[in-house]
Fold this sequence. Notes:
Layout: H1 2-21, E1 28-31, E2 36-43, E3 46-54
Antiparallel strand pairs: 1-2, 2-3
Amino acid sequence: MLKLTLTISLIILLTSVSFAQQDDIIIGNYHLPNKLDVEIFKNSGKYYGKIIALNGFEDGQTKDINNPDTMH
C-alpha cells in the first residue's frame, strides 16, 4: 500500500512540474492576420500583451480607413 501511495504521489508531482514549465510557452512575438505585431510577456506572474507594430499604416496614415465608426 505504501509503495502504491508513493508511486501515485510521484506521478502527480512529475505531472505538475511538467505542466508548470509549459506556462511560459506563449511568451514571444506574434504577427496576427490583421497585420498587427504583438508581444506577449510576463510581469509579476501575470501575462500581458503589447502592440509592437501596426503594419499597413503607411504614408502617414493615422486612422483606420476601414473602420465605419465615425465618432473618432
